[in-house]
Amino acid sequence: VAAAMAAERALAMVTCTAPVNIAVIKYWGKRDTDLILPINSSLSVTLHQDQLKTTTTAAASRDFTEDRLWLNGKEADVGHPRVQACLREVRRLARKRRGGSEDTATLSLSYKIHVASENNFPTAAGLASSAAGYACLVSALARLYGVEDELSEVARRGSGSACRSMLGGFVQWQRGERPDGTDSLALQVAPEMHWPELRVLVLVVSGEKKPVGSTAGMQTSVETSPLLKHRAEVVVPERLAQMMRHIRERDFEAFGQLAMRDSNQFHATCLDTFPPIFYLTDLSRHIIALAHRYNAHHGHTKVPAGLPGCHSTVALPQVPMSPPIPPQVAYTFDAGPNAVIFALADTVAEFVEVVRRSFPPATNGDQFVRGLPVGSAVLSQELVAAVVTEPVPGAVQYILHTQPGPGPQLVDDPSQHLLGADGLPWSRV
Amino acid sequence: VAAAMAAERALAMVTCTAPVNIAVIKYWGKRDTDLILPINSSLSVTLHQDQLKTTTTAAASRDFTEDRLWLNGKEADVGHPRVQACLREVRRLARKRRGGSEDTATLSLSYKIHVASENNFPTAAGLASSAAGYACLVSALARLYGVEDELSEVARRGSGSACRSMLGGFVQWQRGERPDGTDSLALQVAPEMHWPELRVLVLVVSGEKKPVGSTAGMQTSVETSPLLKHRAEVVVPERLAQMMRHIRERDFEAFGQLAMRDSNQFHATCLDTFPPIFYLTDLSRHIIALAHRYNAHHGHTKVPAGLPGCHSTVALPQVPMSPPIPPQVAYTFDAGPNAVIFALADTVAEFVEVVRRSFPPATNGDQFVRGLPVGSAVLSQELVAAVVTEPVPGAVQYILHTQPGPGPQLVDDPSQHLLGADGLPWSRV
């Protein structure tokens, strides 16, 4: 009897962490806005949680009188339809698992829940915080209720790209065919250790301002852009197969070039939307041009072939026009202002120095590079002359150096819970 | 004998003017780079020469020892392949016309020529000066040699869009099917007086700097952009038929919306090019957002329907997201930084005032509006509050107010020749 009473827990609490992911084949547009089913498959790299993560504590108690939610320490609307969809789906899976019978040894599904969630990076800074957030919410709730099913389908109901944050390494979100979305799932293309040399640099150009969410924008694109339709139907299926091959073969040049092309095409479909949607700014283009100049310089020094003239417009930095050059670095931009750069480990120190010279830190600059250590590099005069043109001081706030990482993790240490024994966030003194 | 000697002219001189044109269904990409055959048909509005024109004098003389060319008073390379192509084609047509026999009453085709050409607007300021320039060259040469054939095919050899400047009003450049280009011609969709209320505002944002030509860019697009291929094959044929109908019906709302969409799609295909090509700047997007806010405001005041929220990114002006609103003004951007705005006459005064308030002139501003007269307008407080957000002083140099106009003209007044009796440009004291 004592054991049964103890098992009928009064308070259960679980803490999980979940990663951010960066798409290299982009997701833009839903075929079902309620179930969050995409018009095309997408593919992403899960970033390491040592640098970027969401932490979420979920608690259930018979003493809680209502569901409550705190985001980064502030209470938020727990009634948000997407939060409710995740909660409903996890509970449905728990009920199914229990075969309909309420087992006293498991947590009661009728208890109210408290959830607290925190990012270790600026929220909504264009760093796909909703993906990590919903992946973390679903992971914590599933652990709380003892659900071990395929959970990417549930995370997808919170935010499309959240399903990709349910796995580590290289992840495909399969479009699926079924109208009920049961085949629109995340699949791991390769685990995080598959490509140990791959590095990711996040160039944070705005950590303060809040970009507007992509939900409204992508539906307008679906409704108005003929190019998006073609992209989803014809271009992406080909590119997805190519990208999976490049990742399996660890072919950085092919991977990088396709990532850049796909980022550009995503932004092209935003521009083809009516009214048009712009995420790239003049600064984004400075970074794009810098990457192309850097690649051109290295292509130049390695391949003794003439580079044809340059092509650019009045006010914008020059993008070298040439046959595609094997890239050393590859950029990708999501629906926000930050740039994400892929590179191999042996390129990082030099490219970081190029970025530092191109966007000299406004203040002392000792926090300019964060995350994984970056070695020092001396730039050749030729490199500086060819690549570092027209520096823009202060334009890049800082660089975050990271790498591919694993999927959501359970936090065993109870001292890491974001909620106290009273089920409320720790007071921050 | 005296008559025959007089007819065997020692010096012949002709002066013509030719117009600029602005595409509303854009041309981007050649299927034959030598013959300048496009991958899709395009459609443009010929602008009035009272505001924007090229003037060209062509002279031939038995005393000239070499072909020579002056552009805006400076001698230029007459051996440029495209200049030579135009010269060769006009002479070929002249020879064909004369049936192979050299008639002493006509100008000898063996005489060397002198050509002088001038724009009444800043060269290469993104105002399609090459289109007006080659149209004018071909018109003057054709007059000089007495050729009256279909000349758009010849002008096309100078610059693709030049063929559209060979006609007034609304002009289609038909893609054509034949490999020899004989069916890739300009056709008048409607004459300039067909739509007397239509006005054109050129917002000159850079009259000084020289944008790079589009030739290299468009070929890279043809080679690398899957979206451009789809646009040329599928989207443009539909849009061309729609645009011709909108013009015939003088349906400004449909015309304007399609012009905006097609401009955006052209720039989208530039972005889908690899490496990407950018013509739109942050300032272009300010202007685009301004036009959408202006249209939304008027759609709002006329149609009592709720406007859903706004969608934008961090640093960029907001573009209202809403079902397409009947536009009052429509923007289009070519491969340069200037914006071209279409509006009906009764909208011009108010919109010009909106532009003046949004981009307050840096200096005294008395030359801010040029071209056709613009009435004064008082803006309502509601309009200012809704539309004039975050002014950018000095960003727009000036506004040129013009309208559709006729094709190339012969200048009868000999005092207007750009060359003196000695066949050299007038010395400018």
Automatic annotation (TrEMBL), chains A, B:
It holds the Pfam family MDD_C. The keyword Lyase applies. InterPro entries: GHMP_kinase_C_sf, Mev_decarb, Mev_diP_decarb, MVD-like_N, Mvd1_C, Ribosomal_Su5_D2-typ_SF, Ribsml_uS5_D2-typ_fold_subgr. Residues 200-303, 328-410 form the Mvd1 C-terminal domain. Keywords: ATP-binding, Cholesterol biosynthesis, Cholesterol metabolism, Lipid biosynthesis, Lipid metabolism, Lyase, Nucleotide-binding, Steroid biosynthesis, Steroid metabolism, Sterol biosynthesis, Sterol metabolism. Transmembrane segments: none annotated. Its EC number is 4.1.1.33. Pathway: Steroid biosynthesis; cholesterol biosynthesis. One of its GO terms (cellular component) is cytosol. It comes from the Eukaryota. Residues 18-186 form the Diphosphomevalonate decarboxylase-like N-terminal domain. SUPFAM superfamilies: GHMP Kinase, C-terminal domain (SSF55060), Ribosomal protein S5 domain 2-like (SSF54211). One of its GO terms (biological process) is isopentenyl diphosphate biosynthetic process, mevalonate pathway. It is an enzyme of class 4 (lyase). It catalyses: (R)-5-diphosphomevalonate + ATP = isopentenyl diphosphate + ADP + phosphate + CO2. GO terms for molecular function: ATP binding; diphosphomevalonate decarboxylase activity. Belongs to the diphosphomevalonate decarboxylase family. Catalyzes the ATP dependent decarboxylation of (R)-5-diphosphomevalonate to form isopentenyl diphosphate (IPP). Functions in the mevalonate (MVA) pathway leading to isopentenyl diphosphate (IPP), a key precursor for the biosynthesis of isoprenoids and sterol synthesis. NCBIfam families: mevDPdecarb (TIGR01240). This is Diphosphomevalonate decarboxylase.
